[in-house]
Amino acid sequence: MMKEPIFDVAHLAHIEIYSPKVEESVWFFKEILGMEESHRQGDSVYMRAYEDFYHHTLIITKNDEAGLGHVAWRATSPQALERRVREIEATGYGIGWSEGDVGHGPAYQFTTPDGHKMEILWEVDYFKPTEEQATPLLSRPQKRPRRGVPVRRLDHVNVLAKETNKNVEFLENALGFKVRERILNDDNTDVAAWLSSNSLVHEVAIMGDALAEKGRLHHICYWYGYPQHLMDVSELLVEHGYKIEAGPGKHGVSQAYFLYVIEPGGNRVELFGDTGYQIFDPDWKTVEWKGKDLEHAIIWYGSNLPQEFFEYGTPVKKKEVAPIK
Ligand SMILES: O=C/C=C/C=C(\O)C(=O)O
Ligand SMILES: [Fe+2]
């Protein structure tokens, strides 16, 4: 008998990243990626892309090292929120309720088994355009900005984990995420898994941390939907001295047409240059990449990812080099 799918998590609401260079990070997201600044409070700057409907989708908070602040999920209803809180509490990874923050109401905070801080909420504030920002395209929250190559919306978060499977199972059991694609070791443990609770192929990916660290961030991703924009933004990035780590290219896993760049604070940002594929089947069979299929898993076309891609995450940790015997 099929286990009833859980549709209590609607989507990824926002991500907080830590930056030791907040103003340079804000400049990058604002002037190169065309994002808007929604609010400043304490050590944090709140931002959104022009087709993000909520008050913000990105929080950049001052910290002495780069890394993941927290990930916020929006429930599909107040009732769904209550159900998920009960499930999360039962796992022992619950922290408790916060009154919320600017832009959203009460949020239940928890961590993954690896220690990634997360929260789940229902009440959100919607972005309201100024008269100048208002657009006659009624399905769009505001005019497309004239700055840089504007990203359209937040897409996903990719986190590193010391024990991949434990974190994957937590997201499946406590939050109802479904594993859409996974890369497997020969012993069938997860190298990495891509999960979603909606029609996107993934809103969260969990990748094994090559440095065996806990709770690190691999990347955040914003979505363009147009391949050409990866070429356009590459021009800006190179001309302004930013380091493109990899791409443009296409992953086999998730079919993402990708570009990876390191933002000034040190966090990796992925830019998703096409529409990707959608999943509507409530009984989707997880795509499993292993053995000879691995040839196409990471790179469908484009140059290979550098070794750094598999080791660099934030906070930055040095790879333990085995002492020369
Ligand atoms: O092994 C690397 C694959 C990374 C995939 C993504 O970043 C993605 O699917 O968004
Ligand atoms: Fe990604």
Can you put this structure into words, describing what you see?
This protein starts with 8 loop residues before the first strand and ends in a 14-residue tail after the last helix. It has five helices and 17 strands. The chain is 17% helix and 33% strand. A hairpin with a 5-residue loop joins strand 7 and strand 8 (117-121). By secondary structure, it is an alpha/beta fold. The strands form two sheets. The chain has a nine-stranded mixed β-sheet. It binds (2Z,4E)-2-hydroxy-6-oxohexa-2,4-dienoic acid and fe (ii) ion.
In terms of DSSP E residues, the strand content is: 25-35%
Radius of gyration from the alpha-carbon trace, in angstroms = 19 Å
Q: What structural class do you assign from the helix and strand content?
A: alpha/beta
The helix content, as a percent range, equals 10-25%
Main sheet?
9 strands, mixed
Number of E strands: 17
Bound molecule types: (2Z,4E)-2-hydroxy-6-oxohexa-2,4-dienoic acid, fe (ii) ion
Calculate the mean pLDDT score and round it. 96
What order do the strands of the largest sheet run in, or round the barrel if closed?
A: 14-15-16-13-9-12-11-10-17
Model regions low in confidence, pLDDT < 50 over at least 5 residues: none
Question: Outline, from the CA principal axes?
Answer: globular
SSE series: EHEEEEHEEEEHEEEEHEEEEH
Give the terminus-to-terminus CA distance.
Answer: 56 Å
- DSSP helix count? 5
